Amino acid sequence: MATAAPIFYGYVVLWINLAFLLLSLGVQVVALIHCLTQRGAAFQALGTLPKGAWAGILFVCLVLSGALYDVLLMSMIAIAVALVYMLDVRPGLKDISDGKGFW
C-alpha cells in the first residue's frame, strides 16, 4: 500500500531550502551593506579584522551561497559568517560611534 507522502516530499524540501536560501541571502546582504557603510578606522579601533577583510569575506560568502544554492552547507556557513558580523562586530561598531548612525 503506497502513501502520498513521497509525492509531496520533494516539494516540501524544495520550499524549505528556498526559504532558507532567501533568509540567508537577506541576512548576508544586510551584513555586507552595513560593513560597506562603516568607517575603516572604526574596525581598527574595535580590534577586529579590517573593513576590507570583512567586506571580502561577506561578499565571497554571498556569491558562493548564491551560486551554490543546492549545497545547503554553504548557505549555513555563509549565514554563520554574516551572523558573527551582525552579532559581534556590529554592536562594537555601534558602541564606538556612540550609538548614533543609520543602523
Key phrases:
elongated; 0% strand; 4 helices; transmembrane helix; mainly alpha; 103 residues
What would you note in describing this structure?
- The protein has 103 residues and is an all-alpha fold.
- The protein has a domain at 29-96.
- The protein is 79% helix and 0% strand.
- The chain contains four helices and no strands.
- It has helices spanning 5-36, 40-46, 51-67, 72-96.
- The mean pLDDT is 86.
- The chain crosses the membrane at residues 12-34, 54-87.
- This is DUF2516 family protein.
- InterPro entries: DUF2516 (IPR019662).
- Keywords: Membrane, Transmembrane, Transmembrane helix.
- It comes from Actinoplanes subglobosus.
Order of helices and strands: HHHH
**Discrete helix count:** 4
Could you say which structural class the secondary elements and strand pairing correspond to? mainly alpha
- Classify the beta-strand content into a percent band: under 5%
Largest sheet entry: none
Straight-line N-to-C gap: 57 Å
- From the alpha-carbon coordinates, what is the Rg to the nearest angstrom? 18 Å
Shape: elongated
The percentage helix is over 70%
Overall pLDDT score: 86
Low-confidence stretches: none
Kindly state the number of beta strands: 0
